Each structure stands twice: as structure tokens, then as C-alpha cells.
């Protein structure tokens, strides 16, 4: 099958818009796993003159249904015949209206596949020359979506694999209530989504060599709220030995509301909404296991996020405490933010379509909106810091843009915690916006939320493109030998020759010393841990 980079879809709908059809069976690649053989699909990436073998919907765990709902993932069952891995797996159970809204706002027509609890699958993209023992670098993608929506197949790794001669793996994990519900005791301890990610990584360690990948050279990369995933695996003692590098598109490790020390409030609300509130903890879990997928989704709509929990296992302590104690796995990390983070996303989400509508009054209302996740006590301080002497609409617009961009300052704190000689951290701000979707953004928003993904997954090859866009291919920088080549002495901690000094905060195309004047304020005032009462969407 031929895949033309001249007509490659945008990064969001790549998987959905480009179904891979099985061609001549004689050309289809077959690989062994510890559980049985699988058959994939061979594709040709035009203009790169390279081929990629694609394996879709490989189970890395048993379906988490029935008694396995709200339980740790279990190894998949073996199979005897060759299993077809030629079609995309269902997405994990989620509210598809979110993706429908995304499709509408991006003005792109892509299909939305079915959802199912049976969703613990991964996709693998491998250069077609790679055989077992090739020991190519491996990059594992964990999708974003605020732990509410998304899938492995939304991001097609074939161009990245062909362009950089690496193995790309995209994984799925349980979302929402099914992924993170906890009773706070032994009956269901929670963090199922994180355990799914860990199970996928363990499967990769056991099997990726059969596809030509190097299990000792695995880089996890993620984005958005998903940027918390790589960091949490660095912190969790349960993930020891499963990763060696991380690339984090935004780092939400210490973002309020994502990790909670208590689950009682959410448990009570879920018990009430499910009509299971008269039961004990054990009976509540059993009652919820008997609910249909439709009933689970009806409960889920009341929550904007179900946080992970500190349960003494995956999280022995709060992530911020683990960072401060320097008790984490020593790995090399890149952390990225974009210069105009949320410049379009937040106003559109709150119904503001034009920045010229902004005034001090409605900016105040925006900051107080629950969507923003800002503690009310901090709103006045933010208004003073950013808007204290501005009344002109254009100046307010510029300052509001700066405020939205500075929401990523917590990532700087994570970088400072992790930085050490044995675990260097490279922090950069991406300031070059892609040409894709430029028509649906305000002209003053150049690099918005997730825009860097167009350079990562190869969407920079889509259609007519300026030379400057080609220069900003982060697929090239991320997967460069500096990050992916194994050290000659494997007993020595991996210390790459830096692209830039890890103590610098690199701003691509502008300069260094990013956001220094406001970093102290954000760290002091805006990094408050939130309890379950802040999690409810209503």
C-alpha cells in the first residue's frame, strides 16, 4: 500500500482518516510475540522512498471487563493461529461528543471509531528493513486528552518511523471512571490507567525485540495533560527499568487536581449517581461492575477529571513530595511548552471567539470559570500581576495571551526538581507555528496548544510547505542520535552531548531565560493541591 506524504492528513485524524487496507498476503509482514504470531501491513511512504511495516490493535492485556473492571491489567491470553493486526482497535470508553467537537472546531472530516471497554491495545510502526535483532531505538507515545478522551490510533507513527529509522509504538489505557475510580481501600485501589500504561511498557520490554526494537533504548513521549504520564513513571517505583528517556510536551506532574490524597468525596458522588450508595465498599465495586457501559458513561459526564490517588503502590507519596525527595528514576528528559499555549483553545472553550471582546471584567469571569482550575484566592493576584495598569483592549489582549502562556510555568518547577548530573533536563519553548489550521486561529496566535505535534509526527510533510517549517521538524531533533543512541558503556549513566545547556530554558527562535520574572510568583501562589471537591464538573 502507498501512503503519500503530500496528502497526509493532520496529526489528529491521521489514524482515523487513513485506514490501512491489507494488500497482497505474500507481502504482509508476520512477527512473533510471546503470545503468538501476528500479521501486519506493509506501506510505502512516498517522497521518502521508504517502507514501513504497521501492526495495529495488538493486545497487551486481557480485556478489562467483568471481574477485571476496576482491577489491575492482566497479561493477554495466547493464541495459536496468526492474528491479523491490520485494523485499528476500538477506543477506550469515552464521551465521543468531545471528539465530535474537535472535528467541528478543526473543520476536518474524520471518522470516529467505536468505543469499548475492551481497548487495551497498542500499534507498532517499524521500518520495513528492520528484523529481529536490529535493535532500533523505540519511541512510545502516550496520548493526551485529560484522561477523558483520545486513542492510540489518533496519531499515526509511520512517517516518524520511516523518516527517523526508529520503532514507534502508540498505546491506549483506560479513561475516566474506568481508568481511575478508587474506593481508597483494598477493594479497588485505583490508578488503573497508569497501570495499563505500565503493562504496555512491560509488553514492549518483552516483545519489541521481535520487531527490531531495542528494549534497552525506550523513550516515552507524550503531550498535553498526557505530559504527566512520563513524569509519573519516572517517579513510580513500580516503573523501574521500563524507560530510559522521556520527552514531555508540557509536564503536569504537579498540576492541581490530577493527583489526590483522598478519594472519599468522589466515591460518595459515584455511589449516589450509580444508585449503589447503600452498599459497603466491596459491594459498591461489585454493583459498579454490573453497570452497563452506557450507565458508566452517564455517571462519567458529571466529572471533568477523575484524579489518580496516592495509594502506597503506584504513588507511595504525592508526586511533588517524590520530586522534592529526589527519589525517582534517573533518566534524561526533554520538557516542552509552546509560546501561545491555550491562545485559541481556552477562549473558544469558554465561548469567546474574538479577543477584541476582552475587558478587565470578562477576563475576571474567565479566570473564575471552573474550566480554568484556578483557586479563587489567586485570581486577584493574577489580575494585578498581568493587568494592573492596562485598559487598552489591544494591551489587555496581549497581556491575557501572556497569562495563558504562563500557565505552563509549573513545568519549569518539575524541570528544576529533576535536573541533576545523572538526569539532565532540557527545557524549551516552541515558538514556530505550523501552517496547518492557520485559517481557524487568530493571527496573533502563532504556536498554540499541541501545535508542535505537527512537526513531531510528520504532518509538516502535508501539502505545500515553507522551508522554515521543514527546519522546525522536531521529529528530527527528538529522535536524533543525541537522544537515541545507547552509550558504549552500558554500566555508565547515559549523558548525551547536549544540544544546549540543560540549565538554559531554550526559546526556539527568540532567546533564553524564559519567563524568569513570573516564575517565582506562579510557584509560590498557584501550585496548590486540590481535593476531590474541585474535580466535579458541575
Automatic annotation (TrEMBL):
InterPro entries: AB_hydrolase_fold (IPR029058), CarbesteraseB (IPR002018), Carboxylesterase_B_CS (IPR019819), Type-B_Carboxylest/Lipase (IPR050309). This is Carboxylesterase type B domain-containing protein. Residues 28-468 form the Carboxylesterase type B domain. The lineage of its organism: Eukaryota, Metazoa, Chordata, Craniata, Vertebrata. Belongs to the type-B carboxylesterase/lipase family. It comes from the Eukaryota.
